Amino acid sequence: MKKRWKRIISNMIAIALVIISSIPTISIPVKAEASVDGKLITVGGKTVTKNMKIDDVKKMFGEPKLTTPSYWDGYAYTFYGKDYSDYLYLETDSDGKIVCYGSVSPGFETNKYSYGEKVNPYARAGCEAKDDDGKLYAVIYYTKLHLDAYKRFTENLTENNRNLCKHAVEMWNAISYLYGYKTATYFDEKLFNIGAQLADNHSDLYDYCKSTNQSSCYQLMTGRKATFLEYFYPNPLEFAENARNYECPKGNAIGFMYYPAGEENDDYWIMEGFVNKELLADWKSVAYTEREKELLENSRKYYTNSVNTVNSMKSYYEIKPSYDSIKNIEGGKLSKEVAKGAVDYLNAIRVGAGLNPLEYSEQLSMDAQCKSTYTVYLAKNNIKNSSPHNPPKVEGLSDEYYSKCQSGNGENLYSCGIISTSIIDSISSALDDSQGTGQYYNRGHRYNLLNPEWKYIGVGNTLQQACHKLSGTQSSNVDVVAWPPKGITISESGFSPSGMWTCQFYNKLKPTTDTTITIECLNSNKKWKIDPNNLLENQHYNYKRSGDLISYSDDSIVFKIGGVYQITYDHLTDANGNETSYSYRTVYEKAYIGSEEEKVPQSIKLDKTSEKVLLGTTSKLIAKISPDNIKNKRIYFASNNKEVATVNECGEITAHSLGTADITATSENGNITATCKIIVVKTLDQTDDQPEKEPTKEPEKEPTGAITNGNVNNSNNKSDLLQGHKTNNSKKENITI
After folding, report:
1. Residues 86-111 as b or e (16 or more Cβ within 10 Å = b)
2. Closest-CA residue to 612 (of 676, 673, 665, 691)
3. Which residue did the predictor score with more confidence, 361 or 150?
4. So what's the pLDDT on residue 117?
5. 3-state DSSP call for residue 397?
6. Contact status, residue 694 vs residue 686, Cβ threshold 8 Å
7. Which of 228, 329, 564, 577, CA to CA, is 20 to 30 A from 647?
8. Which of 34, 264, 7 is nearest to 147 (CA)?
9. Nearest-CA neighbor of 580 among 502, 479, 512?
């Protein structure tokens, strides 16, 4: 019923638009569909008219740079000259008539509006891109209203998306060049296919990157519901107009996609973003060592305790802090649930790194609360505090209060946002330590929290200023304290692969000016090398000349949930001054698993379990993960007989020779499988007892290393890092970013 009323309303509005545009007495600035001479558009002094065929257009504009099928049963064409001059976009129907025309070239003229004109807000059949002054700089118009455009486009969604995206990339680069950006993007077939497979599951690359902690691979530009007229007119300018405001990162492909929001296919999302090619790397599972399994289990226990403890709090404070006057200053007291939950959160990170857990100290927490409150008081009253760890004692402050502020043997002071788990936010921020100490310094906040010899910790927080106080000692036999840690790096820790990495050596090894670092993902065999004598533009290196700390970064490094990474330091010196090397592994995993049903998919449902496919043709296999609320919906397809039939990343099958082939769909999360038997035949009435071509035996290749599930974002939105803790997280909204 919902679909029926939507179609009825759509048709009524479309008919109304036709009636309005045909009544000359109504004063609305919509020009006629075609002028007297049939002009549609003029680009570079060359005019295209409504009666022209494509061969007539080619005589003026030359051969098109790109030709694809169009969902109007004709073709789509992109023309342009040097530096994207004389840019023309056309689509034709099955009779070769022009149904769509547009341009992004300065000076174009159309029978409606022309380049540089101010455009009124009335609806027209097409897409108009305007600058900040409301002036037209790009356009796509249609020669008539097409009530079945939405239906046409979605009947073969994958192929129509693919063709539209190819033209959108060309148009994007033209607009990008027009606005002075230096880097062009490109269409990547594999990337598109991955996006199309996710779209079959009502998901997208953005959500996939979040669920696998590869957010650094995807820069989202637009994520929104398709508007009413876009149902009728999916077109490349809908994506390409963002090129005016975004420059493509060097080497990135661009991901465009229309995809259904649900099973009914009534609503569609428009997704657009830049994608790092590292996302496309092939992936195999790598077994965890027994020690890594033990560390992961211990880390998850502490993290689960943190989630349960913080979520059980009745109030954030037992006693609220007050800093209105020095006479009545009150440090306050965090609730035990918040304070202990924060300590368990830190301990989840520490035990994953093979470090001893810290013991919660209520006294240190009360002292930390006093220091947080006093620091805020000084700031609010503009009292100079050049050494925050040793602040001035203002007149009227009691000796007892000041001594509480100065207790402990180690201390972090860190600003934090006002969220329900803000003390935990301060811990993840301090571990990241990208504020305050500078990009290449010693990361003092980080190493206070990771120091293997501290024994006690207390935490305080005013929702503006956090304080961590540490004291006591315990024995330790670690050889390094690194970030990412040796052992387990939990995704909820706030670790950013593109941020500053560090390694503190406790085994008498020392870095030098020649120390090189090699990071290898054992799942994909991808390597990154940082050589201080040959640094790339996106790399940084620093070492503490008087000590044993090394820090470095490479913003192209990508981590993925379930990944195992080998970090190797060459050209170190040992206690005797001899050159040596050191290597360790880190496993990137989620500490929070969630409920049992969220761990892995329960099944993969195929739209067919067997099919006859004509020799030389293609077919599409749709595989859907169940239940639908699984976060990671990536599926890998494989054929056991590639001589008979091959399959790409989105399940499109190509029949090469007579015989049978099994197409297997495997979920990245959980290795759940389903199989479809493909029988390649000469005619569809052929029986199944034809001789089969034996499959070529190949070594089996597991597609995944992910073994758990969850949803964590590695961006600066800390609420996304704190999985399981109650925050203000929300799902994607109907907005343009």
Report:
1. bbbbbbbbeeebbbbbbbbbeebbbb
2. 676
3. 361
4. 94
5. coil
6. no
7. 564
8. 7
9. 512
Half-sphere CA count of 651, side-chain side, radius 13 A: 26
CATH of domain 600-681: 2.60.40.1080
pLDDT in tens, 383-430: 999 999 999 999 999 999 999 999 999 998 877 643 344 677 878 888
**Neighbour count for residue 282 (Cβ, 10 Å):** 12
Residue 535 CA to chain centroid, in angstroms? 27
Task: For residue 283, give Cα distances in angstroms to 14, 556, 641, 702.
Answer: 49, 18, 21, 8
**What is the pLDDT of the chain when averaged over all its residues?**
84
Q: Which residues contact 354 (CB under 8 A, 6 or more apart)?
A: 295, 478, 485, 486, 487
pTM to 2 decimal places: 0.71
Note whether 353 and 431 are within 8 A (CB): no
CA distance 429 to 252: 28
Residue boundaries of the structural domains of the chain: 290-589, 600-681
Q: What is the pLDDT of residue 292?
A: 97
C-alpha distances (whole Å) from 256 to each of 7, 77, 83, 237, 273 are: 26, 18, 23, 11, 7
* Residues 6 or more apart whose Cβ sits within 8 Å of residue 5: none
- C-beta of residue 632 within 8 angstroms of C-beta of residue 669: yes
Domain 290-589 in CATH 3.40.630.30? The answer is no
Residues whose CB is less than 8 angstroms from the CB of residue 260 and which lie 6 or more positions away in sequence, other chains included: 154, 157, 199, 202, 267, 268, 269
Neighbour-count burial of 629, counting CB atoms closer than 10 A to its CB (0-12 exposed, 13-18 middle, 19+ buried): exposed
Residue 123 pLDDT more than 80?
Answer: no
* Residue 133: both structure tokens together: 């002054």
Burial 252-277 (b: 16+ CB within 10 A, else e): bbbbbbbbbeeeeeeebbbbbbbbbb
Closest CA to 696 of 640, 636, 627: 640
Compute CA 185 distance to the chain's CA centroid, rounded to the nearest angstrom: 17
Q: Give residue-wise pLDDT tens across range 200-241.
A: 999 999 888 888 878 778 888 888 777 645 445 789 998 999
Nearest CA among 667, 663, 665 for reference residue 630: 667
C-alpha–C-alpha distance, residues 574 and 192, integer Å:
49
Question: Residues 469-499: pLDDT tens digits?
Answer: 999 999 999 999 999 999 999 999 989 888 8
Using DSSP's 3-state secondary structure scheme, residue 367 falls into helix
SS (H, E, C) 253-280: EEEEEEEECCCCCCCEEEEEEEECHHHH
Reported as type and span, the H/E element at residue 26 is: none
Alpha helices in 212-325 (DSSP H): 228-232, 237-240, 290-311
Q: Which residue from 359, 355, 348 is spatially nearest to 472, judged by alpha carbons?
A: 359
Q: How far is CA 511 from CA 410, 527, 552, in A?
A: 26, 21, 12
Tell which residue, 272, 249, 106, 86, has the closest CA to residue 181.
249
- Position 63 scores a pLDDT of 98
Here the tokens at position 669 are: 């999360």
Indicate whether 279 pLDDT > 80: no
Model pLDDT for residues 33-63, shown as the tens digit of each residue: 334 378 999 999 999 999 999 999 999 999 9
Residue 134, burial from CB neighbour count under 10 angstroms (0-12, 13-18, 19+): exposed
Neighbour count for residue 352 (Cβ, 10 Å): 29
Looking at residue 684, the DSSP 8-state letter turns out to be T
Please compute the mean of the pLDDT values over residues 432-444 and round it to a whole number: 59
Q: Which pLDDT value is given to residue 566?
A: 98
Tell me the helix, strand and coil percentages in the chain, rounded to 5: 25, 30, 45
